[in-house]
Design a protein that fits this description.
By secondary structure, the chain is mainly alpha-helical. The chain contains 6 helices and 3 strands. The protein has a 3-stranded antiparallel beta sheet with strand order 1-3-2.
């Protein structure tokens, strides 16, 4: 017998899969994966980011982050610069091409998401945001215990 908590969970999983598939399709138009887009976003927001910090933000291992960065470097979107505080480490920066790509994709992605959630009026969207933030806060607390 399924209860409402499980049915809600099932709908969240279904929404997550649909959103992730939509993201994959959207970013592929720009020859990006979701991981590469979010790497661009994080480096844009925090120029000079370290590999360790980026891997934490992407929720992946340093090895996976290195693989993602290698492809982005080969495409000319990022560059690694020596860290002046630690000769063994490097800092990540967007190239001019990477910055231009991020700006173009970010503007299109904002519109894409606006369309995906257009069926909510502003009040319902605000209520849903509040509920989702409360849910995520509660889930994080449970994981921390």
């Amino acid at each position: 017998l399924m209860n409402n908590a499980y049915l809600l969970y099932d709908q969240f999983i279904k929404s997550n899969l649909l959103l992730a598939d939509g993201d994959r399709r959207f970013f592929s138009q720009y020859d990006l994966t979701p991981a590469r887009f979010y790497a661009l976003k994080h480096i844009h927001e925090r120029s000079g980011l370290s590999l360790s910090a980026l891997s934490q933000l992407l929720l992946c291992t340093k090895g996976n982050a290195t693989r993602i960065l290698k492809g982005m470097e080969d495409q000319g979107h990022i560059r690694r610069c020596a860290d002046p505080r630690d000769s063994r480490a490097y800092q990540l920066e967007l190239t001019a091409e990477g910055q231009a790509l991020f700006t173009e994709v970010w503007q299109a992605y904002l519109l894409f998401n606006k369309d995906r959630f257009a069926h909510f009026d502003s009040e319902n969207l605000e209520n849903m945001l509040r509920e989702m933030r409360a849910l995520n806060d509660n889930l994080q607390k449970q994981l921390a215990e």
